[in-house]
Every structure is written in structure tokens, then in C-alpha cells.
Amino acid sequence: MYKAQLIKESSLDAYAVSPVGAEGLAQFMPGTWRDVSRQLGLVGSPMDAEIAIPAGAYYMSSLRNMWRWPRPEEDRYNLALACYNAGCGNILKAQTLCDDASLYESIMECLPLVTGRHAAETLSYAPRIREIYKGLLYE
């Protein structure tokens, strides 16, 4: 699944730079890279695939761990993906606006109230990664 996410993020281009400044295979924003690399004791750039791949996997794991039971596992992973794409602050704001909803679909209903037109990208993010993943399974 993580490879599918990297394909979505950067088309597996270790030197990809997004219009908003995200860098590398995992498309780390500078502040996120600083935090994650500090937590893991890494020295280097998000454009160094050898360290960016495990750093991104660690970051996704930490995001998934934020969304605890009683959510279904698929919702936990989808909420982690939404955090990765839109920032956890925005997803938590959407959750609050939706009366502290627990499930992914319910939280996503309120995301446009938080991120406006940018919500469309996040709403399609997890489904697109799952679609890429299915394609990888049947290659």
C-alpha cells in the first residue's frame, strides 16, 4: 500500500518538488521532514530515497496510530492518508465540525468546510491510492 502512496505522491521520482514545496518520493513538507528526521535521528534530505522511504513509512504509521479503536482498520488508514495529504490539523477540525464524528466518511463530509476547494484533492486521495494498489497487485 505504501508503494501505491509513493506512486501517487511523486510517481516514484526521488527528486520531485511540488508547487507547494513538498520534496522527494514521499513529498515531505519542510517542517514535517524536520520533525520526522529529528525523531528518527536522520541526517539528509527528503530527496534521498534511502532515508525518505523508511521515514515516510514511519510517519504514516504514526498518523495511523493517532486514529484508534473503535474505528474500522480501513478508516484508520484512510484517516492517516487524509492527514498526510491535508494535514492533521485540518482533519481534526473537520472531525470537530462534524460533531466529533468517528468514521472516515463522516469526517470527510465536513472537510470542505475547513479546506474549501482543496478538499477535493483529499477526498480523492485515499480512493486513488487504493486504486493504484489494486493495479500493483494485478501487474
TrEMBL record:
Residues 7-95 form the Transglycosylase SLT domain. InterPro entries: Lysozyme-like_dom_sf, Transglycosylase_SLT_dom_1. Pfam families: SLT. This is Putative transglycosylase. It comes from viral metagenome.
